[in-house]
């Protein structure tokens, strides 16, 4: 694939309103939850925020955020390998900052949302319930 074709293809990938995010939003709405989206005032701009109980939810793409990265990193060009490594480091830094500020962080992977949406909702509700009790 030429660099121009690759660039055109990659530019069409969006960071907000992805299918996995929309699926999670639908699940949370069905459970009666109210949330904010992509809050700029929080580290990492969580995809969903339950602000009153301090729960931050990230719905991460398997490729962009490096799901099982060590097993496939060698298949990438140097550019993409360093890009995804940077994303992984940034995610860890943001998760730590949120936890230090008293937030509960829930990370859902794209493949988890696709394979078992009910399990993803269960993770969110467990985090919510653990915060409600505190």
Features:
4-stranded mixed sheet, 6 helices, 134 residues, alpha+beta
Radius of gyration: 16 Å
Cα(first) to Cα(last) distance is 53 Å
Distinct helical segment count: 6
Helicity, in percent?
40-55%
Task: Going across the biggest sheet, name each strand in turn.
Answer: 1-2-3-4
Poorly predicted parts: none
What's the β-strand tally? 4
What kind of sheet is the major sheet?
4 strands, mixed
Strand content: 5-15%
The protein's oligomeric status is single chain
Mean pLDDT: 90
Write the H/E string, N to C: HHEEEHHEHH
Describe the 3D structure.
The protein has 134 residues and is of the alpha+beta class. Helix content is 53%, strand content 13%. The protein is built from six helices and four strands. Helix 2 crosses helix 6. The longest helix has 23 residues. It is globular and about 50 Å long. The model has no long low-confidence stretch (mean pLDDT 90).
Summed up:
With 134 residues, the protein is of the alpha+beta class.
Helix-strand blueprint:
Layout: H1 3-11, H2 19-30, E1 36-37, E2 48-50, E3 55-60, H3 69-72, H4 78-100, E4 104-109, H5 110-115, H6 117-133
Parallel strand pairs: 3-4
Antiparallel strand pairs: 1-2, 2-3
């Amino acid at each position: 694939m030429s660099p121009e074709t690759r660039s055109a293809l990659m530019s069409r990938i969006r960071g907000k309103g992805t299918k996995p995010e929309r699926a999670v939003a639908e699940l949370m709405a069905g459970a009666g939850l109210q949330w904010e989206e992509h809050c700029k005032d929080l580290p990492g701009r969580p995809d969903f925020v339950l602000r009153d109980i301090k729960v931050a939810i990230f719905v991460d793409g398997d490729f962009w955020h490096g799901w099982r990265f060590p097993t496939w990193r060698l298949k990438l060009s140097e550019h993409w390998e360093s890009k995804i490594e940077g994303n992984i480091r940034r995610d860890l830094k943001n998760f730590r900052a949120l936890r230090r500020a008293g937030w509960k962080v829930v990370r859902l992977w794209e493949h988890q949302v696709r394979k078992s949406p009910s399990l993803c909702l269960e993770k969110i509700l467990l985090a919510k319930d653990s915060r409600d009790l505190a």
